[in-house]
Each structure stands twice: as structure tokens, then as C-alpha cells.
Amino acid sequence: MLIASAIQIPIQFWAASLSDKLGRKGIFIVGAILSGAWGFVLFPLLGTKDFLWITVAITGGLAGMALQYGPQAAFFSELFSTHVRYSGASLGYQIGAILGGALAPLIATMLWETYGIEYVGYYIALAAALTVFAVLALSETKGTDMNALHPSQK
pTM here? Predict the structure, then answer.
């Protein structure tokens, strides 16, 4: 985890910087696709019980997450006008963290015990696909005027 996290940090900074140049949505979507595909690679690599392959497995997963976390703060805050920016971004993030963060391990455990570990990969892929569709439904926020006032504030 320590090695994977040390690799994740520069990827996250790189993804944030790249999203400033190319846009938030594209980088976020690449991260989601990588995360979804990695769910099928992750468990076989963990199953090797080999230090190197376990490190590769965790690093790949965190790399996909870093590509999403890098642009996430700017992307979320730019989705909302200054009138509701902090509340809107925070509420969306917290609800997502509760639903995704709290339920995901329970669902993954149930799938693993009931159907087998490969179904956890399907679950990860489904979550990633939902992420891609959700991001595609949003507007690109790169270049948003962060000082723009909501019409009710003028």
C-alpha cells in the first residue's frame, strides 16, 4: 500500500494538471474506465500472493483512482455557481461517499461469497460504467469563471 500510494500521489497531481489543460471530463472518464477494467485484473494478481504482483495490483487500482481524484475537486466545484458552490459540491461528494463507500464493501462481500470473486470485478465495472455515464451527462467545466455570480446574487 505504501509503494502504491507513493506512486498514486504524483499521478494525481499530473491528472489535475492535465485536466487544467485538456478538460476535467476526459481525464475523469479515462480514470473510470481504467478502474472498471482493472477490477478484472486486480483479483487474479492478488491471488498470486506474490509481493511484486500484489503491489502492481494495488498500484493499478490507485492509478485509476488518481486519474479521477486529480480533476475531481475542480470538476465538482465548477459544476456549481458561487451561490451554492460549497454546499452543492460538498453534498454531492458526501452522499456519494456514504452510498458508494459504505455499501460497496458489503455488496462486494455478498457477491464474492455468493457467486465468486469474478463477480466483484463485474460490480466494479458496473460502478465504473455508471460513473462514465454520469460524467458524460455533465458539462465540461474547464475554463469556468470561478468568480461568476449566480443571477440571484447580481
Answer: 0.85
